[in-house]
Amino acid sequence: MDDAATAKKERDPAWWGRRAWSLLSAVRARAPLVQCITNLVSMDIAANALLAAGASPAMVHSLREVPDFTPRCDAVYVNVGTLSEDWLPSMRAAASAGRPWVLDPVAAAASGFRMEACLELLALRPAVVRGNASEILALANRSVAASSNFKGADSSHESVDALEAAKALALSTGSVVAVSGAVDFITNGEQVVGVSNGVPMMQKITATGCAVTALIAAFVAIEPSDALVAAACALAIFGLAGEIGMESSKGPASLRMHLIDTLYCLDEETVTSRVKLSLRP
């Protein structure tokens, strides 16, 4: 299929619905093993989200286990939320083990140590970097050459404000960059996909961002050759689970429960008709 035909296909909302369902179905069928070196706050919800989607989580962070364990995994997820000097060598080793991997640069600009750690990891070429607008702006500001054309470092940090920074970061690193917000933007530096699924209440649940990044890793395990599509579909699926879960929820605690239940119960008709993905101009 030539580039024009591919672009036309990807502008069809029905194509995205079918693609999201096929990837979720493949996760359920293959149960990819995802090694998670993630923060202490997110371990529970990340593991439960992966299990509910059909993947197999492994919270393995010991440096001594990485040489034996990581090469057997289908994907690796690295999250710096509760970063420590003890865990950083494990993160570097797992990211260098030859498996597709995903980076969540939590609060990248909170300290010099954290920023330098994120930049070291970014140099190891994650398949996907997923962060909020402030995190992506901070990384782009430090890692993209001063001559680049990204804007918005002084913005109010909505996801759209970080879009040009995300494009520049993707082009400079070779990673797909996903910016979470009211609308999620996913880019490889040239193409941009927008995802409009989700509800504001999800921001009131600790580590939902961490959980969706873990889900992205599971989808990348299934589709390592197209991390843009994998990341976009994972974000849409997770956001859709939040939308449906919100229909039965009274607040953040019940939404957390219903979100995980919904992720487990999603069916083809629901996914194909309700995911909101689009290829942006």
Automatic annotation (TrEMBL):
EC number of this enzyme: 2.7.1.50
Q: In which pathway does it act?
A: Cofactor biosynthesis; thiamine diphosphate biosynthesis; 4-methyl-5-(2-phosphoethyl)-thiazole from 5-(2-hydroxyethyl)-4-methylthiazole: step 1/1
The catalysed reaction is: 5-(2-hydroxyethyl)-4-methylthiazole + ATP = 4-methyl-5-(2-phosphooxyethyl)-thiazole + ADP + H(+)
Q: Does the keyword NADP apply?
A: no
| Coiled-coil region list | none
Could you say which enzyme class this protein belongs to? transferase
Query: Which GO molecular function annotations are given, in alphabetical order?
Result: ATP binding; hydroxyethylthiazole kinase activity; metal ion binding
What role does this protein play?
Thiazole kinase involved in thiamine salvage pathway.
NCBIfam families associated with the record: PRK09355.1
Family the UniProt entry places it in: Belongs to the Thz kinase family.
What's this protein's name? Hydroxyethylthiazole kinase
Q: Which organism is it from?
A: Urochloa decumbens
